[in-house]
Give the backbone structure.
Amino acid sequence: MGKAGLPYLLVDAFAEAPGGGNRIALVLDARGMDAAQMRQVALKLDQPQVAFVTDWEGLSFEVRYYTPSGEVEFAGHAAVALALTLAREGMLPEGSKKLYLRAASETLPVELVYEGDAPSKAVVRGPAPRFRDPPLWRQVQEFTEALGANERYLHRGLPYGVAFTGLWSLFLPFVAPGLLDDLEPDMERLSELCAGLEIATVHPYAPLGPRSFYARDFAPLLGIPEDPVTGAANAALGALLARAGVVPRWEEAVKLTVLQGHKLGVPGQVEVRVEYAPSGELQRVYFGGTAVLAESGILEL
């Protein structure tokens, strides 16, 4: 961190072209930086989130994630963007198909998918799925009203519930994607309800086809009114849908695609795969997608 400044990259995860998906700032060499310096860099870069690679050995990379307000444990879009960028920037042995991101809470394996010689997608194994008892119908009605809708718009054939693959989220099924774009949440009321139910985000979704869905994600308690495209929440949605048996299972896995970010003008796509143990229990959830470089620069410190 001398006079030369600190190189950084801005990468759009879950996007096919710059300007879509969910943007993350990456600092690929943050060796020797302390927490105060990382916080300062996060503030100066003024991006929703920054991932710092603080150390590495072979295929294992130590990562810390910061927002302008402080450190966070995990970010799904960051893991996808970081894995692809490490491969493209030559920080992995050529042709590597797997790497490991060591974060504060756990180490996540990431698979790289190639098109020809170039890495095109990253697939992250998310934290193991967990579920809580579904909220009372009265609570579902309260959340639906706080989103700016009413219960007539809820899809009775799809599951609602609270699930976790990194963050606890409430999932509410709507009849059609257009209804999601019409939502105008009361963020203050939504914050109160999220705090009461002890969840981080509210994730309304609607079917597009048998294995494809459209979603939005509201996280006012995290200081994010609407998150553009989310890895962890869509992985949990996949787990909820798999557990309810509403998405066809092929080869002992449920595969689905979630589109998100369109209302915000940053369309993105997340691919989710839910795998079962031989006992029939949900065992693992994977989420993945593409990422594209939007900008590179040097931050003067």
Q: What stands out?
A: The chain is about 20% helix and 40% strand.
